[in-house]
Every structure is written in C-alpha cells, then in structure tokens.
Design a protein that fits this description.
The protein is mainly α and about 300 residues long. It is built from 13 helices and no strands. It has one domain: Orthogonal Bundle (MetI-like fold). It is found in: Cell membrane.
C-alpha cells in the first residue's frame, strides 16, 4: 500500500484558488507590493530615513521651508524639501506613515475584537440580547463614523487631565476610531452565526455538552472569518483616512508628531505662499497607501466569494 504524504499548510495554500487568483491578478500583485513597501519603509524608518525628525539636535530652523532638491535653492540632503520646522519631508513621511499605520492597524484590531465578540453573542443567543445589540448598532449607523470619533475624542479630552493629553492622544485616537467601526463586523458575524448555529456540527457539539463559549470559539468563529478579513482590509484604509482627517482637524495626534494628517495640515497653512511640497508629498503618500489597500481589499472580496468570480 502506497504511503500518502500529507501536504503542509503552505503547500495547500499554494494549491488554493486564492493563491491562483492572486497570481493571475496584476492589480492584486501591484497593490500588495506597494502596501508591503510602505509598511516596510514605515517599520524601518529609524534605519533608512535620511534624518530623524524627533532629534531636536539635528534639526535647524534655518533649514525650514526649503524646496525639493531639484528646484532652485533646494539642497541634495533634503530630497523632498523641508517643513516649517526644518524637518526633512521624506523622513517625516516615513515616520508619519509609521504612526498612521500603527493607528490604523490598532483601531482595526480593536474594532474586530469588539464587533466579532458582539456579533457572535448576538447571532448565537438571539432573542432580547440579539435585539438589543442590533438596535445599538442601528443607532450608531445613523451617525457618520467621523462624527462619532470626534465625539469620543472630545469626551476623552475632557476627562483626561491636560498634562496627559499628548501622552494618551494616540490611544484615545485608536479607541475613537475603533469604537466607531465595530458595527460592520458585528452585523456580518451575526448573519454568518445565524446560519452556522443551525448546522449539524453545531447541534452535535451541543448534544455532547460542549459549552457555548467553546462552540463559538472553536467551531463557529473559524467559519465566519472569511468575510471579516475582507471588511478588515477595507476598514484599514478607512481608519487611516479617519486618522488623517482627525489630525488635519487638530484633534488627532499632537502637532509635534509627524503623522500624515498632521503634515498635510501643517502644509495647508503654507500652500498658498508657495511651499506646496509640505502638503503635496504627504497627501500623495496617503492617497497611494489608501488606494493600494482598497484595491487589495477588493481583490480579497472577489477571491473569497465564488459568486463574484
């Protein structure tokens, strides 16, 4: 009798329809490469950035508002020019993308945890619990996410002592963006849970006495993660834009922290005086990052849904 060799998870992934769909989609390949390059540039910013925008010793106010290196009065050591504080634009973009991506990923993870938990409970318990959670979700959907984030940020600033505002601002921003985005996860997971809870494998688990929490974690959760990953990918782009919007409005990260939204807000004040590079280059970076993540999310949605192929 021939001995069968079990394939590893990686080998099964290479044989899957998702990998085949990825290889045959130039848009997915390009968008994933762009996203990966930006993430790596942000992660390794302390090592590859030409300058450190947080090092006050190396920053000279006399270098402020210098144009890009290819323009008149530009300097080669500042490829994309400098901002009003003399910080290198290229370096601040790398560090700014680092902060924007951190806030985006952290808020998405927070939204996923809250939304998946409430969605599982709502779909599995049903009855009044389901009705209450869904009515709360319906109420939140009637307000724009940016308005909810502004409200939460304002309340947090009123509660937190002023001397801790800058120290806790990023965490408040993550909570504000995260709590405004849990509804989509909850509604999607609830719908999938309503379908899964009536299937035979769940009923068999109930019969043998497995606890509801274990059934949700081991049996139902793995089967509802496909749509959740699609939502998370698209939500990452929304979270990055929300962070940039709040920072642009002056209620996000502190002005001394060079996030993409902060750089765009600072550059907007100098746009009409001719220093266009301070806001244009961070703006282009934000657009490219969000576009790449959105295209990746669109591909993932099509790859995980056979009806859309």
């Amino acid at each position: 009798m021939e001995k069968t060799i079990e394939k590893t998870r990686f080998e099964r992934f290479l044989d899957s329809d998702v990998w085949h769909s990825f290889k045959s989609s130039p848009v997915a390949i390009i968008s994933s490469l762009v996203t990966l390059i930006m993430i790596l540039a942000a992660l390794f910013a302390p090592y590859i950035a030409p300058h450190d925008p947080f090092d006050l010793v190396s920053i000279d106010i006399m270098d402020s508002n210098l144009p890009p290196a290819w323009q008149e009065f530009g300097e080669a050591r500042f490829l994309l020019g400098t901002d009003d504080q003399g910080r290198d634009i290229l370096s601040t973009i790398m560090y700014g993308a680092r902060i924007s991506l951190f806030v985006g990923f952290a808020s998405v993870i927070f939204s996923m945890v809250v939304g998946i938990t409430l969605g599982l409970i709502s779909g599995y318990a049903g009855g009044r619990v389901d009705a209450f959670i869904m009515r709360v979700a319906d109420i939140q959907l009637s307000f724009p996410a940016i308005l909810i984030a502004l409200l939460i940020d304002g309340v947090a600033r009123g509660i937190v002592p002023k001397e801790l505002h800058e120290e806790l601002s990023i965490y408040v921003l993550i909570f504000a963006i995260g709590i405004s985005g849990w509804v989509q996860y909850a509604r999607t997971v609830r719908g999938s849970t309503l379908v899964e809870r009536n299937k035979e494998y769940v009923q068999a688990a109930r019969v043998i006495g497995i606890r509801p929490g274990t059934i949700l974690r081991r049996h139902i959760l793995p089967n509802v993660m496909g749509p959740v990953m699609v939502i998370a990918t698209i939500h990452l782009a929304i979270a990055i834009i929300t962070e940039a919007t709040l920072s642009f409005l002056g209620v996000g990260v502190p002005p001394t922290t060079p996030s993409l939204g902060t750089l765009i807000r600072i550059g907007n004040e100098y746009l009409f005086s001719g220093e266009w590079w301070i806001t244009i280059f961070p703006g282009i970076t934000l657009v490219i990052l969000v576009l790449a993540v959105n295209l990746l999310g669109d591909w993932l949605r099509d790859a995980l849904n056979p009806k859309l192929r």
